[in-house]
Specification:
single chain, alpha+beta, 5-stranded antiparallel sheet, flat
């Protein structure tokens, strides 16, 4: 049985006044409040419906309460919530499961084995499995398949374990995990409660949780929390939505600015979520998500810093490294969960419907038109085989045209039928309804496949984040200790921490009262680099705490030239280059469909979304696939297709990846040899296809040229690149001039050039 959560030590720190006021109440009053809270939680979890056909969390919660008064009221709450959320007929299955769970817990309460922690989840598993088996055998549940049955049974037992761990966990990690699971369940249960029909209470709470996680754990924890909460909200929705994409990106992008303060964090999360929601959500849901992110950002500013400090893990070295290991484990489990969900959804068989049988349209039409005809028994009884043959012969022209006419039927049938015009009109209506149903199911099938791919892409991002969460390793701790000892006598009051990111780049953070004195000295960065044993670089202007990074051995020079169609702005092309904190340089060229303001908006938003995903830690291939998915989902409202070129260059190793969606050829000169890189993939936003991906190794002195479609008329790019000795800007301008001379100014043109060379003083 769960203990009252409001009396935990963590709750005392978070809400001291509330906890103190509760302790002043009498024992009887506190018990009444506890019973009311159990009933209310049961009601909320009972309303929750997962995958559109089952409600396992309410059963798990009822099992966790045991066979006493709290269990009885929780069971009543679950049953009432099931009726409220599903209707009387659909609520019979969870209600029967809850009744059996409580009956078993009550009748066996005096047995010794029921006091073991394994009994409640085992009871939930058996009783839910028993009732579900009856529905599965007799086919009584709409959409209730073997996979849904297995998910319901396992989730009921698993949720029971987590709800029990919220207060009875043997370790702090288990208690934290249980409380997170209960909080996630409440967000899911409250997601369909809307204010003004638009703003979801559950999604507001989820967004607040994502902002809090980003504040406590920066981009990794914010991104993981957003993905988990988004996945839970999408699973509880009647139809899959973009919450996973929106909350995941909002948490990761907000966490990037967590070191600057709560307001920049909230602003980054709102803008990131809004940008992604603009691409992936429909208009009504998009409006709700924007309002919810804004409300959560306002609520995020209200608590004092003490509230968040009580949530933050201890900064002690051992406990911090333990938290990092715990976070890595949770991230790995989250990635495995995404992969499992992808496999589960892709393996789910589609339900066969009677309306797929083309002959059913004739039966339905006969039921409506021939009901009162005196020849009904003759046509659809004794002469049924002849009638069926006539319908099969007529079905070919009817379904080809999308409607029925009297002349489509055989002559003998038209002669004997007393109401051939009414019958053909009824068949037309049924055929149109069947064709619309097929079209809708085909569209839903396509959308589901896109969302399955989205889960797989985010699983890859989580795997990458899991690999990066290794800060504080032995080498970095020794380096931080060495620098602290060396600075102690010369500049006291400097705190040093070190870690390496997923690319292996060293990061140093200097904090404390002595940082200002350290940076005031001449050649301080060169001296610190010598003491660290590696060349360091510092962003300008200096920030507090001071962030230093290992200098990249390779340096990139970028040139760009562009022109508008016919010399008239705006251009439908967008080009940008940026470098991430990991030392990866990205070049993006997006060419919108056509030219003008719409093409400009599409290309600009595509390049911005690609930058946000790449800065959040997505691999180039994953970022492009997510971009393509967003464009395909957006195509339900407005067709958006564009060609995209993305080049990533690792400035530490020279490893380069070129990803293309329907883009023009690119050119790379390495070691005196020029390679022409072409792609065969379609434009982004046209179909669910993988992008072209080429892996290269660039060296000192390598040069690359990326073109938009309009500039591909230049035929001498290969020769110009082979003979290139001048500036990159002149090279880009010459290519653009030649393309305009050969193809005219009939399209927007953009040329992006890159030259890679080794920094002076590096080996």
């Amino acid at each position: 049985m769960l203990k009252p959560m409001i009396l935990t030590r963590r709750s005392d720190r978070l809400f001291p006044r509330t906890a103190k006021a509760i302790r002043r109440l009498s024992i009887r009053t506190r018990r009444i409040l506890r019973l009311i809270s159990r009933t209310a939680l049961g009601f909320l979890l009972g309303r929750l419906r997962l995958f559109g056909c089952c409600s396992p969390l309410g059963c798990g919660y009822a099992a966790a309460q045991g066979g006493g008064m709290e269990g009885a009221l929780a069971s009543v709450g679950v049953m009432l919530g099931s009726v409220s959320g599903m209707g009387l007929i659909e609520a019979l299955r969870p209600s029967a499961s809850v009744l059996l769970i409580y009956a078993a817990s009550f009748l066996l309460s005096k047995a010794a084995f029921t006091r073991k922690s394994a009994f409640p989840p085992l009871c939930a598993l058996c009783m839910t499995g028993l009732i579900g088996a009856v529905y599965l055998i007799y086919g009584a549940g709409e959409g209730f398949t073997q996979i849904a049955y297995a998910a319901e049974v396992l989730l009921s037992a698993g949720s029971c374990v987590l709800y029990m761990a919220a207060e009875q966990g043997s370790t702090q990690e288990k208690k934290t995990l249980g409380l997170l699971a209960l909080s996630m369940s409440l967000c899911m249960a409250l997601s369909d409660i809307c204010i003004a029909g638009v703003i979801s209470v559950g999604r507001c709470l989820a967004a607040f949780g994502v902002l809090t996680a980003a504040w406590l754990g920066y981009a990794p924890l914010g991104g993981v929390t957003g993905l988990l909460l988004g996945m839970a909200l999408d699973a509880s929705a009647a139809a899959p939505g973009p919450c996973t994409l929106v909350l995941g990106c909002a948490g990761a992008l907000g966490g990037v600015y967590a070191h600057r303060g709560r307001f920049p964090l909230a602003l980054g999360a709102v803008l990131g979520g809004a940008a992604v929601g603009f691409w992936a959500a429909e208009s009504a849901l998009r409006t709700g998500l924007l309002y919810e992110m804004f409300i959560a950002s306002v609520l995020f500013q209200l608590p004092g810093e003490r509230f968040f400090e009580n949530l933050r893990p201890s900064a002690d070295g051992a406990e911090s490294s333990g938290f990092v290991r715990y976070l890595r484990g949770r991230t790995g489990l989250a990635a495995a969960a995404f992969e499992s969900i992808t496999g589960l959804l892709e393996a789910t068989p589609e339900l066969t419907r009677n309306q797929e049988d083309t002959f059913s349209v004739f039966d339905v039409a006969a039921e409506q038109v021939c009901r009162s005809c005196e020849r009904r028994e003759e046509c659809w009884g004794k002469a049924y085989e002849s009638t069926r043959s006539a319908m099969q012969a007529a079905s070919v022209p009817i379904f080809k045209r999308g409607g029925a006419r009297p002349e489509d039927f055989p002559e003998w049938f038209r002669t004997e039928c007393r109401n051939i015009r009414g019958y053909s009109a009824s068949v037309s209506l049924e055929v149109k309804a069947l064709l619309r149903s097929r079209q809708l199911r085909s569209r839903l099938r396509t959308d589901r496949e896109l969302l399955y791919r989205q889960y797989a892409d985010f699983a890859a991002i989580l795997r990458d984040l899991n690999g990066e969460q290794r800060g504080g390793a032995g080498e970095e701790r020794r380096l931080a200790g060495k620098l602290r000892r060396q600075l102690r006598d010369r500049v006291p009051g400097v705190l040093v921490s070190a870690f390496r990111d997923g690319n292996g780049r060293l990061h140093l953070e200097l904090d404390g009262s002595g940082v200002q004195k350290l940076t005031a000295a001449a050649n301080w960065l060169e001296n610190l680099s010598r003491e660290a044993g590696t060349q360091l670089c510092c962003p300008a202007p200096l920030e507090h705490p001071l962030q230093l990074m290992e200098q990249e051995p390779l340096e990139a020079e970028v040139g760009v030239a562009s022109s508008c169609r016919g010399g008239r702005a705006p251009s439908g092309d967008a080009a940008r280059s940026f470098k991430t904190a990991e030392g990866i340089l990205y070049l993006v060229v997006a060419d919108g469909m056509g030219s003008g303001s719409e093409a400009e908006a599409d290309s600009r938003m595509a390049s911005e979304l690609a930058e946000k995903l790449l800065r959040a830690g997505a691999r180039p291939e994953s970022a492009m696939r997510i971009l393509n998915t967003a464009l395909l989902l957006r195509g339900e409202k407005r067709l958006s297709s564009l060609s995209v070129d993305l080049m990533s260059v690792n400035l530490f190793t020279g490893e380069t990846v070129l990803v293309k969606y329907g883009a023009a050829p690119s050119y790379v000169r390495t070691g005196g040899q020029v390679r022409v890189l072409r792609g065969a993939s379609p434009a982004a936003g046209t179909e669910d296809a993988a992008p072209d991906c080429v892996h290269l190794q660039l060296e000192d002195g390598s040069t690359a040229v990326i073109l938009s479609d309009g500039a591909a008329h230049a035929e001498s790019v290969e020769q110009r690149l082979r003979d290139h000795e001048e500036s990159l800007q002149k090279l880009a301008g010459d290519i653009l001039t030649e393309a305009a001379a050969r193809g005219g100014w009939e399209d927007d043109m953009t040329v992006l050039t890159l030259n890679l060379h080794r920094r002076a003083g590096t080996v």
